[in-house]
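hi! just following up on the protien thing from before. the input was this:
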Amino acid sequence: MKATQTRLAGASAALIIAFVGAWEGLRTSAYKDVVGVSTICYGETKGVKMGDTAAKAECDAMLDASLKEHEAGMRSCLKAPENIPIKTYLAMVSLSYNIGSGAFCKSTARRRLNEGNWTGACKAATWFNRAGGRKVQGLVNRRQDEYKLCMQGAKG
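and the predicted 3d structure came back as:
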């Protein structure tokens, strides 16, 4: 990925890695998430099988690569990602990481970002608080934390 295709560098990269890492938590042995999907490290699911293990360094590298992958997916459906205030942008990377780039690109949050409605996008992002068809308090809490970060950017 070219440097111009990411905003995850320096302080921004450190902030999003710490933010997402704190919410996802680190587990070096595979486990089933709240909807029964095999998961490891900081919420990674791709190719994970029960019984898998990973070192913290491997998990850190996976998180970094996955955040960049989700950022690229998010950017693919944004008209002017460079215009989004950085903290709003980082909150949306966290959302995309958690719900997947496909869901993000179909969301009202994405539509509002493309309209330049930062506050509306921040609010719409809070709607993703369900897993397996039910409201999950952990997701409610995460969305509120993302909302606070998002609004720091939205209000400039």
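Residues 3-154 form a domain with the Lysozyme fold (CATH 1.10.530.40).
Strands lie at 27-32, 38-41, 130-131, 134-135.
cheers
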